[in-house]
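Continuing from yesterday's entry. The apo prediction looked reasonable, so today I'm repeating it with adenosine-5'-diphosphate included to see how the binding region is handled. Same sequence as before; SMILES copied from the compound registry.
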Amino acid sequence: MNAPDRSAPDPHGFLRGRERWRPVEALPWLIAIGAFFALPDYMILGTQVITMIIFALSLDLILGYAGIVSLGHAAYFGAGAYATGMLSAHLGWGEPISGLLFGGAVAGLVGFVSGWVLLRYHGLTLLMLTLATAIMLQELANVLEVWTGGFDGLLGMEFTPLFGLFENDLWGHAYYWYALAVLAICFLFARRLVHSAFGRTLVGIRENTRRMHAIGSPVHWRLVTVYTASATMAGLAGALFAEINAYVTLDVLSFARSGAVLIVLILGGTGRLYGAFVGATVYVILEDELAKASPEFWEFGVGLVLVLVVLFFRGGLLGGLDSAARRLKEARS
Amino acid sequence: MNPVLNAAVSILFDGLAYGMLLFIISVGLSITMGLMGFVNLAHGAFAMAGGYVTVSLMNLLGVPFLPALGGAFVIVAAVSMPIERLIYLPLYRAGELDQVLLSIGVVFMAIAGATFVWGSTPPSIRMPDFLTGQVDLGFKTFPAYRTFTIGVGMAMILALWLGFERTIIGAKIRAAVDNRAMAQAVGIDVDRLFVVTFALGSGLAAMGGGLAIEIVGLSPPFAIQYLVFFLIVVAVGGLGSIRGAFVAAIVLGIIDTAGKYLWPDGGAFFIYAAAVLLLLVKPWGLFGREQT
Amino acid sequence: MTPALEVRDLCRSFGALHVARNINLALAPGARQALIGPNGAGKTMLVNLITGALKPDSGAVFVRGEEITDLGQAARVKKGLARTYQINQLFRELTVLENIALSVAERRRRGANLLQPFSRNRETVDEAAQLIETLRLGDDMLKPIRELPYGRQRLVEIAITLGQRPEVLLLDEPAAGVPSTESHIILEALDALPDNIAILIIEHDMEVVFRFAEQVTVLVGGAVLVEGPPAAIAKDEGVRAVYLGEHEHG
Ligand SMILES: Nc1ncnc2c1ncn2[C@@H]1O[C@H](COP(=O)(O)OP(=O)(O)O)[C@@H](O)[C@H]1O
Ligand SMILES: [Mg+2]
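Holo prediction written out below.
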């Protein structure tokens, strides 16, 4: 049966084909690099987009692949932001790359501990617990005013130039590349992870947890592992946010932020990694355009789009693109 | 009276009034979530809408406060029905993610709409004389409005209890919360039941929103600000349990009020921590039944 | 000889409903045993109790002499205990290949590998392909489950479990919902299993029971009514009254 047979499908080839890089996957990176040269004045916005992509990508790992619905993913974004911020503001450690790694590690630890507890629960209980965890952290940050700056926010961060050379300049040029590099590393990791055996077991858990137990899968540990990875990545996004702005407020832990990242991912499409890219780009740019001009219009629009996406375009933008392409193909043949 | 005792009684009293508000607003959410398993994060929007209907009826049409509250109940309940049929119905069988997203969308639209129509500055309303000032309950005087709120809460719990225990529709709702499949099998039209329950819950929330104006204020973000509290009441009390929602709301109201008096900055943290701990130990809440 | 599977005094009730009353059962290595009984007798519940999906109120379960009553489901699987479901439990968005390869990968303890592409697990994939061959699923190998008719899905259900290479196999009505033209595939797949596997099959079709089983246990109302070779069971008056009687009435 190992002999190649033209009529029989080839399982190895099929699985390899899934994992193979496609030419179109170069597109986001080409756009990102092109944007630097074409739109040099928009690099601060570009950095915001990238930060949001990393954050949404981290959510996609748990939501899109493992099926964990979280209403409190900002907990880990915020943990990373405060960790990096406090390291600089209180301990005077301003080297950005190690600061970033520290933020990611702290968020990962918070993710590991909270995930270990929370992921024993399902459904509504889990939903409530994720929500409450983030709000609890927010309240904690509010209470620990001495360290976090409380309601007024954490000030006094100072970061040294990247590699001792590149300052966070007013136009955000250096940090654009920095953020893009962090995104590239996070993306490579996420892509590896979802195509690994581990990644397949996550989809298995999403599709049928009961059966995963019955084929001997240590479901809880699998979930804790991906949750920790996701929290670390969210923490990196938060740390990046802190370094870019040199300022962190309680808002990094807010329900609004947890909601926004969920919306971004749904808008782009879940369980496909690139949904985070599309969703974050569209959302952050539109928000920048509309939210200032007419906040009510923006908010109403987001709400309406969300309702429409859920009712009619469940795959998000990329899902819509997919089915449009499929229909085109069918129409042709 | 001893000043410590005096403060304690005040806290208890204010907490009770606040808890009643939470109960009136949350009880509908508890029942609809218990009945259909629908995670409706837009419930607070109905309370917010009720607040604005009350304000509009009073300030634009000169309707007195009490009829305006009734008006808020009726109008919001009526409006909630087509919303339920059009937007919620398609998603009853969907996963909780879809329900969460959809209802977040509804909240966003509601907040934006309210800001557009009523602006973001909190409106003020003129209370009737008998609700301003203090009432003397013999051993101590209490703010009249809070006394009134507690009275309304008591009346509501009585009405709900009678409604659920003594009417046919109440029995049907209880049966359906208990075991939807079984209820359907014995010929209860659960879908229709849900419209009614949804409208009732939204109406109650609206009335709660109207009552809340004098206590916590009203502005469009109300729809989401207190959402976590409503959800905690529902989750801690146990889905579909009126008694659970009542106990959870009162306890939450009193603890939160005490926290604000005694430790203005840190109180909220302990509420969330306590709610999380309770849910960890009793995932189905105080009075909820295990869902399988 | 130590039994491959042993169940001792297993009890479980939901309120007033006793789904298992003092059930005792032993399967020798290589046993081919059938479990029959009317609908609602508690057959599926017994499987749930044995595999740990449901906790017993009292009693104990042993696999090859080792007590597993307090182990979780996944740990029991690692002891060689596997089951199929009466109602398919599949990964609907994944392909047939992935459904089965997932099971094999878990058995081979590949599932924790975070960074190696799944396709590198060549042996896992080969083994999955072999199972696909056995269950004649070749044509559907690359289709997602949701595109398959129920009968074909049923074969995947069984292949996933066989991917565990169990030593004790519990089959909950494996042929239910499979068109009669395809049900022989299941029996042939079972016949092809190594002789030393102990198999407990829940089955309504008496013809299948006669062909397959050497021993039959009859469960009624959560309790074992009688146990014996198929021929003796078929003649048993009590069984006729309860079980066959119920069947005639539907
Ligand atoms: N979660 C549950 N709670 C209460 N009773 C249950 C539950 N699940 C199944 N039952 C009951 O347990 C009994 C045994 O069911 P089952 O094992 O599925 O029967 P069988 O597989 O023999 O047809 C039935 O009466 C069924 O109604
Ligand atoms: Mg059964």
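Comparison notes:
- The pocket of adenosine-5'-diphosphate (ligand 1) is lined by residues B 292; C 14, 17, 19, 37, 39-45 (CB under 6 Å).
- Residues 3-36 of chain B form the longest helix (34 residues).
Will overlay with the apo model tomorrow.
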